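We were asked to recover a plausible sequence for a given structure. The inputs and outputs are reproduced exactly as logged, with field labels preserved.

PROBLEM: sequence recovery
POSITIONS: 398
GIVEN STRUCTURE:
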């Protein structure tokens, strides 16, 4: 009985406590509703409709420069090197004398060949006179037919001897001229590998020097065969994507400091096989190089314009946000003026825009200004950029 009397006041107070809890719960619900109220507010933004643009389809590849032409200078006759006739590192022209080999031996051989030719020609002249006399005597039966045939054969031998001597003179003249080693092409010549007094041999393995022609200059790059296959599939599908004829494929060169090379080049060679170790195809571009700013062996980046997208979607960079993983997205305004988050795929920057390759369609509207105040599912109101700037200046709602 004592316990019941003790618990009676508590039992009587229980309904009041429950009523108080319900009222408190109602107050909390009202507070939560007041906190959620801003989520329903209309955000004022500016939008941009996606319209078609013409964009070059580029691929940035890495490679190295190489000479347009290069030639190793070697002697064609042997002998002692008598003179070097060029400045190392200077420009030389095709046909310039680069080295002189001691010519005395070859001059003597030429003189002997000329003497042999003179002797053969003298013998030929005598034999011709003998043949004429024998022919006259044959008519009068003063000599036999056999005698005339012998003289005729001797004449032919004399004529052949003259021809052989002429060939020997030509050969001796060639060897004598080759004592002057001339430049096979025009270009810039390297350091000389031999000095005066060195013994040279004909067609030796080690070159005397090397000449490089660097205007124009080649840039050889490698492209993934998978990427090239994907590009060709896009060109076959069309949909605003146009391929470029190989002879008209433009190339832009980026130097190591990020600056563009002032002159554009063009692609002039596409590999015919795939490298099995790297799964790449070799491409070669040609660039003008009148100032010789590009030296052989430079590491460069080349942007190759493989085609054009005439229905390209460009999104301003300030309208593109990124999530915690760095993936890009935008807010698209649907027909009910509600913002929808849309993940996109971008290729590269074009000025202040991103080239969007997936995620956006032409005709759709994206939030441009005020994008940082927008969340998915929010109601938005489109205003002009001037109105939005005026509101922001006055501290109004965005």
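RECOVERED SEQUENCE:
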């Amino acid at each position: 009985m004592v316990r019941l009397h003790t618990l009676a006041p508590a039992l009587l107070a229980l309904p009041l406590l429950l009523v108080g809890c319900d009222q408190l719960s109602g107050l909390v619900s009202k507070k939560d509703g007041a906190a959620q109220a801003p989520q329903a507010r209309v955000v004022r933004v500016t939008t941009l409709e996606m319209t078609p643009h013409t964009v070059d389809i580029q691929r940035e590849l890495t490679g190295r420069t190489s000479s347009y032409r290069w030639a190793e200078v070697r002697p064609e006759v042997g002998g002692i090197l008598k003179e070097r006739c060029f400045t190392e590192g200077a420009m030389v022209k095709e046909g310039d004398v680069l080295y002189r080999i001691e010519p005395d031996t070859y001059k003597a051989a030429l003189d002997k060949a000329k003497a042999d030719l003179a002797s053969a020609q003298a013998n030929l002249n005598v034999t011709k006179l003998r043949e004429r006399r024998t022919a006259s005597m044959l008519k009068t039966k003063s000599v036999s037919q056999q005698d005339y045939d012998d003289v005729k054969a001797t004449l032919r031998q004399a004529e052949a001897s003259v021809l052989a001597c002429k060939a020997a003179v030509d050969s001796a003249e060639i060897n004598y001229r080759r004592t002057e080693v001339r430049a096979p092409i025009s270009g810039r010549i390297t350091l000389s590998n031999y000095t005066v007094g060195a013994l040279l041999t004909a067609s030796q393995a080690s070159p005397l020097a090397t000449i490089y022609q660097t205007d124009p200059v080649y840039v050889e790059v490698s492209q993934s065969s998978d990427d090239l296959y994907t590009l060709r599939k896009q060109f076959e599908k069309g949909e605003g994507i146009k391929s470029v004829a190989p002879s008209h494929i433009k190339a832009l060169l980026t130097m190591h400091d990020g600056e563009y090379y002032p002159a554009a080049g063009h692609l002039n060679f596409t590999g015919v096989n795939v490298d099995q170790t790297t799964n790449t195809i070799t491409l070669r571009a040609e660039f003008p190089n009148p100032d010789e700013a590009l030296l052989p062996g430079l590491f460069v980046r080349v942007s190759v314009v493989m085609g054009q997208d005439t229905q390209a979607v460009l999104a301003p960079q300030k309208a593109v946000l990124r999530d915690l993983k760095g993936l890009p997205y935008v807010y698209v305004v649907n027909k009910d003026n509600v913002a929808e988050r849309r993940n996109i795929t971008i290729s590269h920057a074009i000025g202040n825009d991103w080239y969007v390759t997936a995620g956006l369609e032409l005709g759709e509207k994206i939030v441009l200004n005020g994008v940082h105040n927008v969340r998915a599912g929010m109601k938005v109101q489109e205003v002009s950029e001037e109105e939005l700037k005026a509101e922001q200046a006055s501290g109004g709602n965005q």
